[in-house]
Specification:
By secondary structure, this protein is an alpha/beta fold. It has 2 domains: 2-133, Rossmann fold; 143-198, Arc Repressor Mutant, subunit A (Orthogonal Bundle), CATH 1.10.10. It contains 10 helices and 6 strands. The protein has helices at residues 11-22, 39-46, 62-72, 87-95, 108-119, 127-135, 143-153, 158-165, 169-182, 188-197; strands at residues 2-7, 27-33, 50-54, 77-82, 100-103, 124-125. It has a 6-stranded parallel β-sheet, sandwiched between helices. Strand 1 (2-7), helix 1 (11-22) and strand 2 (27-33) form a beta-alpha-beta unit. Helix 4 packs across helix 6 (127-135), helix 7 packs across helix 9 and helix 8 packs across helix 9 (169-182). The protein is elongated. The two termini are 38 Å apart. This is DNA-binding response regulator. Residues 134-199 form the HTH luxR-type domain. InterPro entries: CheY-like_superfamily, Sig_transdc_resp-reg_C-effctor, Sig_transdc_resp-reg_receiver, Tscrpt_reg_LuxR_C, WalR-like. It comes from Streptomyces antioxidans. Residues 3-119 form the Response regulatory domain.
Length: 201
Amino acid sequence: MVRVLIAEDMHMLRKALVALLEFEPDIDVVAEFSDGAEILPRARELRPDVAVLDIDLPGVDGLTAAAELSTAVPECRTMMLTSLGRPGNLRRALAAHVSGFLLKDSSPDKLSDAIRAIAKGERVIDPQLALAALDDGPQPLTPRELEVLRFAAKGEDSGQIAAKLFLSVGTVRNYLTSAVTKLDARNRVDAIRIAREAGWL
């Protein structure tokens, strides 16, 4: 019996997933919830075989929870569900030791088969996402540009970033301008959005 934990914030979708999996004789849904903050404590308590996580959860997002699970409950393998087929999300998921990555519009059979495969130690990646990741171009920013953009993404202004990185305010602005230009963004907010969607931040 494969013991499964489900975290999905959309109530109707979560209930549909639970109902679908309960039809499978060899899959047992041991917990379901809508908030990512519940994943780690419940997984520690219940020790599921597979955690099926929405990528965009309130509290703690699915990728952060997956990374925490890989350390705290290593026997629990994780599968991400997303409606966003962004190549960057796949790269981030692999970095978080995720075993599976499926789009939410996958068929029910595909989901249950993926859960079984992941429980056996296999990796299951949606072919469309894998191809998109291969087609995605290289990351164009320098390590310093990425670092400055990361601080900007946290809401810090040029002066605060300069103080933290021991740079002049002008140099920080130059890095931000360069990042905006390289990403063909309208401004720094747009550059942050592009970098996040690509999984670089």
